[in-house]
Design goal:
Four copies of one chain form a homotetramer. Chain A contains four helices and five strands, in the order βααββββαα. By secondary structure, chain A is an alpha+beta fold. Chain A has a five-stranded antiparallel beta sheet. In chain A, a hairpin with a 4-residue loop joins strand 4 and strand 5. The longest helix of chain A is centred in the N-terminal third of the chain and has 18 residues.
């Protein structure tokens, strides 16, 4: 069973484009903010890492857009994480509209930690924190589609 | 052989985040603008369609991030289009850094035209214009990964 | 005395630029969202008006940036409204960092309602709702700097 | 007479909101990019300064919105700079729609250089470069409204 991190959002009018719905790029903002909130819960602070030139880099993203979010919508983003290799992690994310719970979009991402030289690398301290997340929010889903990348 | 639509860009400083590179969500902005420029070349105007509640909807996107774009970078987005079913189109896009030509990111998208009722539908006039694009910028690439969605 | 509308926010990492603080343009997003929330409280829905081509247009904005907001900051935006002429309204806004209450930025805006033809105009129903806001969140501040515009 | 730096732009569809025009916050993006291009012409690179924690901080901005920019519009941003005190500079900016030359918006900003400690300070090397800009793009306009801040 998957236990998800959950983060609540509301659509802001400036996020909607001429077609009246939330612009596709904004979903990436939402997904990122939900992931960063989950990371922060385990003491992983993107801003602090960035200052030390340690990067948490997105290597791949897949998103299925199922419904549109529009002005005024309330929604929750559910996020889980699993390890696909020593230094590659997969995040599974889902947007659910409140209060109905209808699925709006689903995403899968591959993330990799890098050091100041830009090479895949994970400090032991970061690994400890990631392990805490893996224990708490690990998805059991096999992810054949991403594992080979 | 694939003939690509090409659109030139330069990174703007406000598009870069604390990690110094262009934020992942901004790539979606770039890809969208490149597609809309290609569509416009065939007389397909997103804004005019939106006013008539005709939508060009992205159903799925996949992006591989290979390198980072940083402040000052010049780059070109190459876009091609192919038909994967009656009302589903696949866009293949690639970001190449200038002047070296190194690949920065690759994307595949599935787009669907919808009518004012939100149903997949394509006006004959729109179909004519899309056919012109398919003739000019059609990728021969088979796209097994997206065709089944 | 001024009674303010209050809306709480938190800084999201994608809103910060290479200089590590929230990019100046993002403050406009924050201010807009706070105003739209205040308007919505009185039944004024920007999205619904936009669909009918009724516009709530910003004619002028002045912002003083006093401190920077950075990753992780929690803050509140306080908004009040006053009438400066028949069809011109002034919004006064202030960003206060939580929990200290230090002032981060102050803004003054002039807004004007327009009809579908783009002319300054206010439907009676809209006027009723605006009057409710003026009674609740009216600032007594004289605003010499903006009144003459 | 004022000699302006000029930078050309085109509206991108993702920059337009539900009211069909360019969202007000996006004008700040445009103004910033035009200023950074002007600075770069004199060898002042915002990204390189940010890496050394040298900041070019906007303390105040005033914008008058005169017309709307909409999808497809081509425009130019004209920028000039003048010195209002030892460490305070005023930028005057204007958006002109092409090819008509109609004024879309006007902005005035106060900018201040700061050092890594966050204090107003200007390195001699930066001062030399700014002086070059002041000689080339200096506006003679008196700016009573901003000088006292």
């Amino acid at each position: 069973m998957t236990y998800w991190h959950e983060k609540e959002f509301e659509v802001r009018d400036y996020e909607c484009d001429m077609a009246d719905g939330v612009n596709n790029a904004i979903y990436m903002n939402y997904f990122e903010h939900a992931r960063h909130c989950m990371l922060k819960e385990a003491g992983i602070d993107f801003a602090e890492l960035a200052r030390r030139k340690v990067g948490l880099v997105v290597k791949r993203i897949e998103v299925d857009f199922i419904r549109s979010l529009v002005s005024g919508d309330q929604f929750v983003i559910k996020t889980s994480i699993s390890r696909i290799s020593r230094l590659r992690f997969e995040f599974t994310q889902e947007i659910q509209k409140n209060p109905e719970g209808t699925i709006v979009a689903r995403a899968k991402l591959v993330g990799v930690p890098i050091n100041a030289a830009g090479k895949p690398f994970m400090e032991p301290e970061l690994e400890d924190k990631v392990n805490r997340l893996l224990n708490k929010y690990n998805s059991d889903q096999t992810s054949n589609d991403l594992a080979h990348n």
